[in-house]
Write a structure and sequence with these properties.
Layout (H helix, E strand, L loop, with lengths): L15 H24 L1 H7 L5 H22 L6 H19 L9 H29 L4 H29 L5 H27 L4 H12 L6 H6 L16 H7 L1 H17 L2 H5 L10 H16 L13 H10 L3 H11 L2 H25 L6 H26 L10
Helix pairs in contact: 1-5, 1-6, 1-7, 3-5, 3-17, 4-5, 4-7, 5-17, 6-7, 6-13, 6-16, 11-14, 11-16, 11-17, 13-16, 15-16
């Protein structure tokens, strides 16, 4: 590619693989803190047995994520993406660190309320990071978006693996469940800190990232100015956004994608994690059962993020994506009857398909939807889609309480 003083574009788009690796790590950091909370659910159920931790903490988390995300979407064109992402990762790091502090074996309402406050901070941080990163990557290579969501899914698989290892290591020791959970949170805090360093120092300087951001700036995207400055590119606000589509127009043109993301997350969060912790009964795996189900979901969710890289398995049809999303609602009766009458083998199979379809549909929509738009529009569309994703997550968590009507377990 040609380099000119006017564009600031590099001669060659070097560093694509490096950028994909960085996106993967940054995606991991965007959800590793929250997945930490979900994965140590067995510890919280022991400390707070009467407070429904997996359900309550998720309900606390989501309104703060949605509220913050709605504000950021409204002011998206004026928000400094660099500061937004760094603040988000820093808030994740500090919040996860504070979770390590409580040391009591039994928990009262005061300690539970404190944990809820920290989880609310997770929600704010998630809106900062996920919306900022998805908006930023929407005007870059689709592979970057795929790598980011693969990293997000990997956070679930990684936290599940670490939790199984820490539970095995401390299972027979005094206060072992707490020790394992605290060690697990310390490792998660370290990952969040690494993300701050990666994003603040190296990511912006990768040639292909600089090129994509320079192109977006030429098309009128002002949110990349600080990242370009960090990469040594000073630009004047010469791009005009007068001819860009409004948020409303972008939403109407992509309403099927937005609804698809919403429904995908409604269905998934109706079942995961609350149903898997509270409504699947007791089986041969004993206290390991819920942890194994969570781990299986996370592993298949991670694997599914790479399926769209295989061209003949990639689904780009808008009608096909909607039909596949609606078909997933057959999981509701399937999980109900399996929990009531089936054994653990059937439940493990269902959880595998739940994770497989969730990750596949999410990454398919997020990589296809931004195509054909200018940089500022792609940034805004990415933020809008994340908003619908978060609203769907909250709706699913709220609907998940319906499983508790009548009996807590089937």
């Amino acid at each position: 590619m040609i380099n000119t003083a006017e564009t600031g574009l590099p001669v060659r788009l070097e560093g694509k693989f490096k950028a994909m690796v960085f996106c993967w790590v940054l995606g991991l950091g965007s959800l590793v803190a929250w997945n930490s909370i979900l994965t140590i659910g067995d510890y919280y159920y022991k400390v707070f047995p009467h407070y429904h931790p997996s359900r309550v903490l998720t309900v606390v988390y989501q309104p703060f994520a949605i509220g913050t995300m709605a504000i950021l979407v409204y002011y998206e064109s004026r928000v400094d993406t660099r500061k937004r992402n760094i603040v988000g990762y820093a808030l994740f790091t500090l919040s996860t660190l504070f979770l390590i502090v409580p040391r009591q074996g039994k928990g009262g309402i005061g300690l539970y309320f404190g944990i809820c406050l920290i989880v609310a901070c997770f929600g704010v941080a998630n809106a900062q990071v996920q919306g900022g990163m998805v908006g930023d990557l929407s005007f870059m290579c689709p592979q970057f978006m795929q790598s980011y969501f693969a990293g997000s899914a990997a956070s679930g698989a990684l936290t599940s693996a670490l939790r199984l290892m820490t539970k095995a290591a401390f299972d027979k020791t005094h206060d072992g469940l707490r020790k394992g959970a605290m060690l697990f949170l310390a490792i998660s805090t370290f990952f969040e800190f690494i993300c701050i360093i990666l994003y603040a120092t190296w990511f912006a300087k990768i040639p292909v990232v600089k090129s994509c951001r320079s192109k977006a700036a030429l098309e009128g995207c002002k949110s990349v100015s600080a990242d370009l400055a960090a990469a040594g590119i000073q630009r004047q606000d010469e791009g005009s956004k007068d001819d860009r589509l409004s948020n409303k127009q972008l939403l109407f043109q992509n309403i099927d994608y937005a609804i698809g993301l919403y429904l995908t997350h409604v269905l998934t969060l109706t079942i995961f994690p609350g149903f898997l912790y509270e409504n699947t009964g007791t089986h041969q795996l004993g206290s390991w059962y819920s942890l194994v189900l969570i781990a299986i979901y996370n592993v298949w969710d991670f694997i599914s993020q790479y399926i769209p890289l295989i061209s003949w398995l990639k689904l780009e049809s808008r009608k096909g994506l909607i039909l596949a999303t609606l078909a997933r609602f057959l999981f509701v009766p399937a999980f109900y009857f399996t929990a009531k009458y089936g054994d653990q083998g059937w439940m493990i199979m269902l959880v595998s398909f739940l994770g497989l379809t969730h990750g596949y549909l999410t990454v398919s929509v997020m990589t296809v939807a931004p195509k054909g738009y200018k940089g500022p529009e792609q940034n805004t569309l990415g933020n809008l889609l994340v908003l619908f994703l978060l609203v769907g997550t909250f709706s699913g968590v709220a609907l998940g309480w319906l499983w508790t009507i009548g009996n807590g377990k089937f």
